[in-house]
């Protein structure tokens, strides 16, 4: 059985990996500019500057695209909460500190470009968007009691980055606007590189302290909430996004959780002690249950869509 390491010991041990990983990230990351992704010539003043205020007829986005854009943007807006979590739980020194700063600056671009796009194209109500931002950022992101420390954080952001990648990419598809799609693909590519950084760090933690790391991973996976949790209208919006395949349970299982667990070789490893083995068993049980829930959700969704189609036919 491996010896328990403190948070500081883990961070110190993993510093060389963080440095390597940071350099890899810097060599892969593309420098891009939010202004290149926004159709500025579509913009015009609002009433306060002598123009016209927003009204729903100005938007070209369908309901699913609007809800998904808002949810994804508010998630990006909550960067201060995520920054706090990462800055508190990763070291501020050396490669760790450089990563935290660099990652924060990259994430900030996502909120900038999406808001510029939505305001310039009048895709959503800018007043409602601002009100939702105020509420969401004031609340911040809260994690369940008992979470905290490097291992929980690094496991959480691994899944969160991949989940936002999926959500941005699929939102791009439902916008039916090549400019929005290009912008969201650009963001999704960033999220993928972020995910790779965190996944590599969490994988290195698994090799270093297998039992401690698997306990944190299991805690995160079994309590994970979809992007947008805690936002105004999260339930309604989350359901709409799941219903239309922007981010649903099957995508969560097949495109987010399972590939990461496979990358870490969770179910093939033989370096766990008794507590690690127990945690892995809990995870296996959870994954079986998730697979059943996926089937149940899809049956419900099919019934719901069929009912809606029948209602539409009846109203014609
Ligand atoms: Fe982002
Ligand atoms: Fe990201």
UniProtKB/TrEMBL annotation:
Keyword match Metal-binding: yes
Superkingdom of origin: Bacteria
Binding site for Fe cation 1: 76, 107, 110, 191
Cited InterPro entries: Fatty_acid_desaturase-2 (IPR005067), Ferritin-like_SF (IPR009078), RNR-like (IPR012348)
Cofactor binding annotation: Binds 2 iron ions per subunit.
Keywords: Fatty acid biosynthesis, Fatty acid metabolism, Iron, Lipid biosynthesis, Lipid metabolism, Metal-binding, Oxidoreductase
A Gene Ontology molecular function term of the record: stearoyl-[ACP] desaturase activity
GO cellular component: cytosol
Cofactor annotation: Fe(2+); Fe cation
Annotated residues for binding of Fe cation 2: 107, 161, 191, 194
Single GO BP term: fatty acid biosynthetic process
Subunit text: Homodimer.
Family named by the database record: Belongs to the fatty acid desaturase type 2 family.
PANTHER family in the cross-refs: ACYL- ACYL-CARRIER-PROTEIN DESATURASE-RELATED, STEAROYL-[ACYL-CARRIER-PROTEIN] 9-DESATURASE 7, CHLOROPLASTIC
Protein name, entry field: Acyl-ACP desaturase
